[in-house]
Amino acid sequence: xxxxxxxxxxxxxxxxxxxxxxxxxxxxxxxxxxxxxxxxxxxxxxxxxxxxxxxxxxxxxxxxxxxxxxxxxxxxxxxxxxxxxxxxxxxxxxxxxxxxxxxxxxxxxxxxxxxxxxxxxxxxxxxxxxxxxxxxxxxxxxxxxxxxxxxxxxxxxxxxxxxxxxxxxxxxxxxxxxxxxxxxxxxxxxxxxxxxxxxxxxxxxxxxxxxxxxxxxxxxxxxxxxxxxxxxxxxxxxxxxxxxxx
Length: 246
Hints:
By secondary structure, the protein is mainly alpha-helical. Helices cover 74% and strands 4% of the residues.
């Protein structure tokens, strides 16, 4: 019975190490291209976050203004009702039968007048509050308008750079994918972890002048011989980078 041939290629450790070094060179080139963007991606993100915060602030202020309007309308209705009550009480005073009824109606009128005074005081407070909130909203809207202009300019600049480098990045990533196909998942995961933990993105470095090309610490001769043989992955005991022979 014929055995089914696997499509997967079993690469030697030396081939995997070479592929790792190729991938590192490709990723370093992509890093160099991305450096042209400088702080633009972060600046765009910061502006977007600031604009989102400003929009939330403006929405909250406008909600508070609407609340003031609702309360103002409520107090105005209370004032109108109190005036109607006062008119009714005064009309009733013309038809009272004794002083006691007259005094009772007088107290009711005084109570309603106090209610009107209180409501009008609240109305003045609401008006002052709305004025303050409207000023705050206008200020926030002005800042948001300026930030939007800044964001549009930064985005345009970033998009221009990305458009100029898109083909080059795509070509390098295609080469990177080809190199990755010769590296097993476990090794690729280790590479990405190391690359993400070092500042310059160098996860794979060569031995230069008997030293690690990443941290420049001395590599013993026996260790260098093992690296040249390429039979296993060897990492720098000081910085954790993968070491390869030139």
